[in-house]
Amino acid sequence: MYIRNLFILLAVSFLSLNQSLAQDSLSSLQLLFVGDIMGHGPQIRSAEVVKNVSYDYEPCFDFVQTIIESADLAIGNLEVTLPGKAPYQGYPQFRSPDDLAKALRFSGFDMMVTSNNHSNDAGKLGVVHTIDVLKDYGFYQTGTFKNEEEREWYYPLVLYKNGFKLAFLNYTYDTNGLPTKAPTVVNLIDTTQMKTDMEVARALKPDAIIVLMHWGLEYQLNESKKQQRLANQLFEWGADYIIGSHPHVIQPIKDHSVMNGDSLIDYRLAVYSLGNFISNQTKPNTDGGLMFEMTLFKNLSSGEVTPGPHHYIPVWRYIEKDKKGKATYRVVPISAFEAENVLNMPANKWKAMLNFARKMRKHLGKYDSFERLLTLNDLGLGHLKETAQEKKVAPAKQTTE
Predict the structure, then answer these.
(1) Would you state the pLDDT for residue 19?
(2) Maximum CA pair distance of the chain?
(3) How many angstroms separate the CA atoms of 74 and 51, rounded?
(4) How many domains does the chain have?
(5) pLDDT above 70: residue 229
(6) What CATH number does residue 244 fall under?
């Protein structure tokens, strides 16, 4: 892992030092991916401002907004439908207010993929309205479509940013038995169709092909044999990166080697599952996930693309409650908050976050990426520490003479 990352960094350094390469001909692109964005019933109730009318999800992402905004492209898996009207509900058929999309956009996300096992939870109108809302808020979106014609015209999704051309594909293993009502389309894991889609993607000659997969076995910390086989197929068909969701827990990040010609080995990367970004799940290891960052470099003169370093940021779902018991769901980047309990979490919650971090670091330490450590100052949240310290200082005792 470290040898490969060192090689990549040295290669990039060599390019930057090469006198024949103009300083402004090297472009970079930072991509950010997060796991499952869910909307359980308690989350909906916690965000409610006016019953069945308005909801405020923005506080959920306060602590990670700086991270999201710093990416050139920030991408999430929206594992709810946006039906556009009440009643809103959580499991088993997720129907969240449009205000969730508004908050995600405000926090800095650029793209949502929508092919997952809950895509059909609000029926045909839910598929259509979810797409409309996301696009109205300025998101790039793919994985579900209003009709076959839309899919034919706009899939794979091709984005241009910082001189890069990227192709995105998105598939799910199932829709929980709920049929996809014509004319809408939900991309399913169908290897025949996927191979055809990959041929189209390659023909577009993008700088990278990124496949977002909703797959695997729920609550399993290691990827399945089926995931491994499918990943190998996707890499053989031309995928450069695979980003996974659905298990609701963090699974390994692994380099894959693919033969390119008789002797040249190309490296590919599979992030098997990012876990939960935000949810109300309470099963073991479901109370957190990863924000995964990776960088690409491109010589704009030659067109050569070089993979840069990649790393992850563990996050934990904290349910903060005020004195009246009102809950606020928050995504907490663990490394910035673990040195001191600046949020004044109850002891059991503080311990749960630290235990999650310890276990996931041990789990991920065996594989092919590394953690990016953060401080409160990195996030523009240094005031939280100052406020916590002020609260610890007891007021001076008043005396009279």
Answers:
(1) 43
(2) 93
(3) 31
(4) 1
(5) yes
(6) 3.60.21
